[in-house]
Design goal:
The complex is a heterodimer of chains A (about 110) and B (about 120).
Chain A lengths: L3 E3 L4 E4 L4 E7 L6 E7 L5 E6 L5 E3 L2 E6 L4 E6 L8 E8 L5 E3 L3 E6 L1
Parallel strand pairs in A: 2-11
Antiparallel strand pairs in A: 1-3, 3-8, 4-5, 4-9, 6-7, 7-8, 9-10, 9-11
Chain B lengths: L4 E3 L2 E4 L5 E6 L6 E7 L5 E8 L2 E5 L7 E4 L6 E5 L8 E8 L9 E2 L3 E5 L1
Classes of the chains: A mainly beta (about 110), B mainly beta (about 120).
Chain lengths: ~110, ~120
């Protein structure tokens, strides 16, 4: 079983659409949760941390359900510049980040 | 804004050769990491480094790999005898604190091609 699973997509959406990504993780002892963004052939960059209470950063909302081991990311009012691969990431023991394979988002005009 | 830098951006080598990938972490950071990403696959953890020693390593990080912080600024990854399957993008990262307590900042990566 994969440690972090994501729907690979691609999600093709028009500008202005709302899109949601889901992620599940296998290790119930996972401690911290993040969404990273990766543009083609570039390094991953932190989009936002994810907290049990849910958190919002502008057009982006992240949710964590520890009981279901489920993480989500909602993007409202999609922009062309949101086109990227979105990586669900968890930390387990120690410092390493465990990455999902990513979900591809393509926003079209 | 401080950033992690990596050199070279692209390294081409022959199978069996040694390569050294270089990274300059953010200056006040204490934790250093190497990850790799094979083309089309997920980012995978290789090794973490703190207080001049390896704190954790993955199964990928076998005897062919080593890391070093030779001075106060550089952090290097050495692959002793490269294999075709070592071809990947190698990302260096650094963080101020451990685990998820602070963000891991990634460098732009070194694309390693083994022929």
């Amino acid at each position: 079983r994969k440690e972090v699973e994501q729907d690979p997509g691609p999600f093709n959406v028009p500008e202005g659409a709302t899109v949601a990504f889901n992620c599940t993780y296998s290790n119930s002892a996972s401690q911290s949760f993040f969404w990273y963004r990766q543009d083609c052939r570039k390094e991953p960059k932190l989009l936002m941390s994810v907290y049990s209470s849910g958190n919002e950063d502008g057009r982006f909302t992240a949710q964590l359900n520890r009981a279901s081991q489920y993480i989500s990311l909602l993007i409202r009012d999609s922009k062309l510049s949101d086109s990227a691969t979105y990586l669900c990431v968890v930390t387990e023991y120690g410092n390493k980040l465990v990455f999902g394979a990513g979900t591809i988002l393509r926003v079209k005009s | 804004e401080p950033e992690v830098t990596q050199t070279p951006s692209h390294q081409v080598t022959q199978m069996g050769q040694e390569v050294i990938l270089r990274c300059v972490p953010i200056s006040n950071h204490l934790y250093f990491y190497w990850y790799r990403q094979i083309l089309g696959q997920k980012v995978e953890f290789l090794v973490s480094f703190y207080n001049n020693e390896i704190s954790e390593k993955s199964e990928i990080f076998d005897d062919q790999f080593s890391v070093e912080r030779p001075d106060g600024s550089n952090f290097t990854l050495k692959i002793r005898s490269t294999k075709l399957e070592d071809s990947a993008m190698y990302f260096c990262a650094s963080s101020l604190l451990a685990g998820g307590l602070s963000e891991q900042f990634f460098g732009p990566g070194t694309r390693l091609t083994v022929l």
